[in-house]
Amino acid sequence: MAACSGDDGNSAAPARQASSAPTASDNENAIDLIVAGKYVVTMDAAGTVIVDGAVAVDDGVILAVGPATDIDAQYVAKERLDSESRVVMPGLINGHSHAAMTLLRGVADDLALMDWLNNYIFPAEVEFVDAEFVRIGTELACWEMIRGGTTTFVDMYYYSDTIAEVVERCGMRALISTTVIGQRSPDAEGAGDGIEKGLAFINRWKDRNSRITPIFGPHANYTLNAEQLQATRAAANQAGVGISIHLSESPYELQYSKDNYGGTSIAFFDSIGFFDGPTIGAHVVWPTADEIPILAERQVGVIHNPTSNMKIASGIAPVTEMLNAGVRVGLGTDGAASNNDLDMWEEMRLASFLQKVDRMDPEALSAETVLTMATRGGAEAIGLAGRTGELRPGLRADLIQVSFDDVHFVPTFDVISHLVFVADEQDVVATVVDGAILMRDGQFLTLDTARIKREATALAARIQQALSERNSGD
Ligand SMILES: CSC[C@H]1O[C@@H](n2cnc3c(O)ncnc32)[C@H](O)[C@@H]1O
Ligand SMILES: [Zn+2]
Questions:
Q1: Are strands 150-157 and 92-97 parallel, antiparallel or unpaired?
Q2: Which of the residues 73, 100, 255, 426 could staple to 137 if both were Cys, CB 3.0 to 4.6 A apart?
């Protein structure tokens, strides 16, 4: 970690710089926000941590990062998030989620992937998922993610317009996939229909909101055939957008690929030109040794989902090997029905511990490495490098404050160790996206949490009733 306490040239030419120490009368020139803390963990490539630092924000952009005394000498802000015992760091990036599945949390536990999907989740989705389900489920998820310090997520679900509308309102940043799946789904009759509707969704959202990036989300190699996968890639390239897909997730998928496509999963995808465009592969638990270099060469962003992989017993991904080979690897939660929460702090900790025990190597996947995967590395994996994921002038102001007041932070010898091995979502006290404060001291400024809770509870009662009737054979 590179510590910093002086002027390191980290300041951009600010739009509203005070020529001398600012006073309250400078307020008409005030910038939007200053976020200060005991430590500013920038997650830049040099690993800069600033003691007693601050971040200056205006118009959604980071203007300067440096010692608080320097920032305060240069800027006066309309709003200030301050505290001596807080860490300021980039917001977390959840690279793979199915947000609305918060409403299916706990309906089918302790099952392997294909049993879970085919016998519980797909039937429940066809029965219950509509635009209202997706609106309420996604709102619940955004509440949980903002609460836990996630500022960007990559979602794959149905009714993508509804997801985008929720994200637009709640203020988060998201890549939103429009699902393509070769079977009847809640919002399409099959793959062709999904591609057609997907293109319309992408046209509606491509230039509408800079926080929202529409992409395609073909489900997997066992729910789409080679022609459908290629057609989805062609549509994505035609629309100029990327793709997110479940990739080499389970032994079933690997065997399916060998049986139906004559080769292992990633090699097959590569052979049909599927990686000829920006691709995010979720899970990637079973790449062969020969396939890992393909992921690096084709610049496939890999999202590691340790909790979901453990819970549905898919296996342990070779994260260390992928990172060593130069693969871009980020972290994700998967949906709340296979995790069963959206807590990126838990993902970081479990990612690290899982590699250590799997390799019997306590040095595997250090705190610094997993924190990078959840921030700057995650941004690289999902194609948002240089836009979010680190605290650097010119990047969008997506940042959080973590309180180090709780007993588990006393004493703090190493701030990175504490963030990864100790902190949890309850320690996050402020979440800022694009310069807008979404949560401050447990108050949600863009979400009506009482209304969301009421609506989710009412909808869950209807789901519960239908499930009970189904189980009792009525
Ligand atoms: C195109 S994404 C929506 C689709 O994916 C299902 N899903 C949720 N989690 C997983 C997973 O880990 N592997 C494969 N498919 C998954 C979800 O229920 C939706 O039907
Ligand atoms: Zn998934």
A1: parallel
A2: 100
CATH number reported for the structural domain that contains residue 135 in this entry? 3.20.20.140
| 219 CA: nearest ligand 1 atom | 1
433, 91 contact by CB (below 8 A)? yes
Domain extent for 373: 92-381
* One domain for residues 70 and 198: no
pTM: 0.95
419 plus 331 within the same structural domain: no
- Whether 319 maps to a domain, the answer reads yes
In a 13 Å sphere around the CA of 161, the CA atoms on its Cβ side amount to 11
> CA distances (Å), 318 to each of 22, 231, 302, in order?
52, 30, 11
| Burial class, 281, CB count within 10 angstroms (exposed 0-12 / middle 13-18 / buried 19+) | buried
Length of the chain in residues, anyone? 474
CA distance 141 to 240: 28
For a ligand 1 pocket test, name from 117, 163, 254 the mutation site with the most ligand atoms within 8 angstroms of its C-beta: 117
CA 117/CA 391 separation, integer angstroms: 39
Work out the number of other CB atoms within 10 angstroms of the CB of residue 114: 15
Q: Is residue 70 domain-shared with residue 120, that is, in the same domain?
A: no
Binding residues for Zn(2+): 96, 98, 246, 334
Instruction: State how far Cα 92 lies from the chain centre.
Output: 7
- Nearest residue CA, atom 1 of ligand 1? 219
Predicted-complex ipTM score: 0.99
Domain total of the chain: 2
pLDDT averaged over 10-residue windows placed end to end, the chain, 474 residues: 43 46 64 98 98 98 98 97 94 98 96 96 95 98 98 98 98 98 96 97 98 98 98 98 98 97 97 98 98 98 98 97 98 98 98 98 98 98 98 98 96 97 98 98 97 97 88 68
